[in-house]
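[RESIDUES AND BACKBONE]
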Amino acid sequence: MLTVKSIELIEINLPLVHFFETSFGRTYERRIILVRVEDSDGAEGWGEITCGEVPGYSDEWTDSAWVTTEKILAPMVIGGPVENASFVFDLMTRARGHRMSKAGIETACWDLEAKKLGVPLWKHLGGVNREIECGVSIGIQDSIEQLIDKIQIELDAGYKRIKIKIAPHWDYDVIKQVREKFPDIPLMGDANSAYTLADIDKLKSLDEFDLLMLEQPLGFDDIVDHASLQRQIRTPICLDEPIKSPGDARKAIALGSGKIINLKNGRVGGHAQSKLIEETCRVAGIPVWCGGMLESGIGRAHNVAISTLAGYTMPGDVSASKRYWHEDIIEPEVIVSATGTITAPDRPGIGFGINRERIEKLSVRTATVSE
């Protein structure tokens, strides 16, 4: 039985090593909400709310997540005993949406439970592949030359797959030059909903580059137009934003909206929902991979754990801490091997220590909800 006695929220400001640009805009610093849950024995677990600073990628953002978690979601979980962590999400179903906020609490409860059981979180989740393959996501750069230089750096570091962000002003010519320089690398483009079916000729033209996938080219909430597009292009479509639940995944698969799913813990509401979607896709023969949201080490550790499930068969955006942060908030930091892999830790829970001193230095506000 799992009973949460208190939930602490901590907002930190964590500067990025390099700016990260998508079709939504450019990010230099992350405002991140950490979630610490504690039970009556004083045992603790850590999670992270992965939404952005503005409602670009999703309709959640840092300030909305703070008040929603503190005032609405945390009181639903505190004192409400559940059989195990897989039921925590259900305690919050009276609140519609806000899945990233829910995931912050839910994943912290999984960490807490795994620590109390004395097992690594990845094993507790049912993971089978302790070593996971890693890819990288590279944002829109100031020049194609700069992009090519960054790709070379990541390939030299051993990463298994390169994802580049694209947009109507940064697509065909960019990919063409990248392919000329790197003709054989596993390469994909991520559009973050920057196109419509009116751009069908442009999207068809990308077939010549033998991309691993084209991620979320159309509307953020669409699976119908994507099905139409997938029938007209050879490149596999990877769905991201519209897949928020097992039901969404089932419907998208039935429609033929895409051939791959990017499965982000925060977007779907945490580990229990990720496990259900992973199973749905695995049974249907749809590969999934773990997407990233510029997480701190805590969110990254949870991504490592969930990526060990059997259905995660493609390299995810789970990369080394040093790609994003001068200093992370976990010890040791997440490290990628020279062959582009991460080995899930064997310590209980997320498997990394929490650098409380570093968190306190970065903290800009805190709140605690308790019985």
Q: What stands out?
A: The chain has two domains: 4-118+355-370, 123-343. The CA atoms of residues 34 and 48 lie 5 Å apart. The first strand starts at residue 4 and ends at 22. The longest helix spans residues 99-117.
